[in-house]
Design a protein that fits this description.
alpha+beta
Length: about 170
Amino acid sequence: MTRFPFNRRLAALAIVSIFASGPLLAKDHGDDHGKGHGKDKHEAKQMQKEAKREAKEAKHAAKHREDIRPGTYFNDDQRAYARRYYSEHYGHGRNCPPGLAKKNNGCMPPGQVRNWAVGQPIPRGVTVYSVPQPVIVQLPPAPYGYRYARVGNDIVLVRTDTQLIVDIIQGLLG
């Protein structure tokens, strides 16, 4: 058996250690194994996901809100149907509380003067009612971010985040 000189052994050991340490010196590829490496990449991915989600929401909202101009959402047929439904079910005091039935004002509580208009938010203190299902199915579907409500003697299309009135069917009971 031949013995290698000390210099050759030292050179061989150096070469082997360089090849063995290669993976340790390599750049981090997301395998942080809980040691704090790769946090910047994780944060960047989170920011990309958040930006994509926000862009998608903005596109969805813009798609549904761009066609809505104040005062133009309801057509004459929809207004006529809503008035007919309310006059049949609530006209002449039907289905109103007894005190409001005598007033012949469309079941409107006392002290609630009609002080809402297109382009204005629903005033504070005004009672907002839900619209009956038979009327809702005859109206176009409320766009994303909007809802129907009955305020006093009117049906309004309201933007949910700002309570802004976009369109009104006035005078349900005359």
